[in-house]
Automatic annotation (TrEMBL), chains A, B:
Residues 11-110 form the SnoaL-like domain. This is Steroid delta-isomerase. It holds the Pfam family SnoaL_2. One of its GO terms (molecular function) is isomerase activity. InterPro entries: NTF2-like_dom_sf (IPR032710), SnoaL-like (IPR037401). Keywords: Isomerase.
Length: 123, 123
């Protein structure tokens, strides 16, 4: 099982990639057969290809991310974070709570994002 | 499906019951066949009787709770909160992130608590 330190480092890498990386950078943090449910209640994406496609919106915008709180338990992490997206025309701020599981190499095996559209702040 | 407002109200009731109620009060918020995994990675408790027993430690201490952040998605909630436990000899503060699912009547059908012993602050 990945250690708590490995899991914390993986979350840090994830937020850095969402903030400053490409969709390929983010997808590379996932295991091949990972699942992604964002937001929770929608149909999960399965596999790294579908996951990279999900993150492809990243490639057209500027994001900054900030970790607000992180809890590690077993092979899992739950974390609250802020993502600010500058589309060029407006700034969208959202602060989801994500839950991730990790494999022995601290690759993300599942991600579930808890948020709803009403949590978005557009400026 | 329970509405977002119903789910928010259920989380509020839960924190009030953990703060000022008995183990029976807390267990009454769960569905009959609910599961509880606290912390994540431990063997889940199944059913309201086992769940009430889990919370029985509440009955010997004074707890106060405070909601720090809450996100609702689908039939689920993720929330970060503070629990301060006064055992009479010491004060233990912990700020878990919990994930819950709810049935149509906004009863808790599953609870998973993300925290680790190193997150506890003893004073």
């Amino acid at each position: 099982m990945a250690s708590p330190d490995d899991i914390r480092a993986a979350v840090t890498r994830y937020l850095a990639a969402v903030g400053g990386g490409t969709s390929a950078d983010v997808a590379a943090l996932y295991a091949d057969d990972a699942t992604l449910e964002d937001p929770v209640g929608t149909e999960p994406k399965v596999g790294r290809e579908a996951i990279e496609k999900f993150y492809s919106a990243l490639d057209a915008v500027q994001n900054t991310t900030e970790l607000l709180s992180l809890r590690v338990a077993g092979n899992s992490a739950a974390f609250h974070f802020r993502v600010v997206t500058d589309t060029g025309e407006q700034t969208v701020t959202i602060e989801p709570i994500d839950v991730m599981t990790f494999d022995d190499q601290a690759r993300i095996t599942s991600m579930r994002a808890f948020w709803s559209p009403e949590d978005m702040v557009v400026a």
